[in-house]
Amino acid sequence: MLTGRSVTAPGNFHKVATTAAHEMGLRYMSDMSVVDSVANDLSTERQTPRLEVVGIDKEYPAATGPIQILRGLSLRADRGEFVSIVGPSGCGKSTLFNIITGLVPPTAGSVLVNGEDVTGSTSRHIGYVLQKDLLFPWRTVLENVVLGLEVRGVRKKDARTRARSLFATYKLEGYEDKYPSDLSGGMKQRAALMRTMVTDPDIILMDEAYKALDYPLKIALESELLETARTTGKTVVAVTHDIEEAVTMSDRVYVLKARPGEVVSEFPIDLGTTSTDINERRLAPRFNEFYEKIWRGIGQKPGAA
């Protein structure tokens, strides 16, 4: 997992490590494409998952023998679906996202996007929002937001026009020409969210992306994202430690056990409401029922009902 922890070492190691992290961010941003047009036949498209992970194993070598991070992990996410992944710290959730984006190869298993095997490579359909913002400190906020569009060859004027339309939504109006050093932690994360959203990816991976935001803005952006998924057919897969957030946002929740991470249970979520307003969804009659099921599920062994 990429974190916000500072690296302290002699010489220029800190600069090299920071540059490497930025380059990693640039790698997956450069491969993100504009969202496909919404298919006319939704039922046909749902036969093939937008994203499918099949039998993923991940091991890392160690002096005492391989350390297994993931074991036989499988999941799917359909068009227009919001899927959450919950589990204890260290169960491999972020490793799974790195495998899906092609940043880390699996030891075994495969990743499919729209039925195409993309294992070990970056997919042009995926956008990835990390816990760490990875903004380039020498670029303005606007220049950071348009970076993915520039890499894909969008004209500078067009890229900036598209980006500027998001600044009001993400409460960053007036900061277009500021630098990351002028922003708070939450503001930086909002800029990072904009950088992903402006490219219109089909699949949005979110690794606790709202964690640094204040509660009112978090609720507003969650509602906006859920509405976007419903109306445009985008697929969202989110890693979270917050069961309340998972139940409120999701059509489906996967629970992973502690390392090696594997699926303990899968919960289709039906709160009995079609509202995309987060506050309304948290007041839905079945909210507590699903919250309790998932809470209990985290303590189950693999295969338990």
Automatic annotation (TrEMBL):
Residues 51-283 form the ABC transporter domain. PROSITE patterns: ABC_TRANSPORTER_2. It holds the Pfam family ABC_tran. InterPro entries: AAA+_ATPase (IPR003593), ABC_transporter-like_ATP-bd (IPR003439), ABC_transporter_ATP-bind (IPR050166), P-loop_NTPase (IPR027417). Keywords: ATP-binding, Nucleotide-binding, Transport. One of its GO terms (molecular function) is ATP binding. This is Glycine betaine transport ATP-binding protein OpuAA. It comes from Mycolicibacterium smegmatis (Mycobacterium smegmatis). The lineage of its organism: Bacteria, Bacillati, Actinomycetota, Actinomycetes, Mycobacteriales.
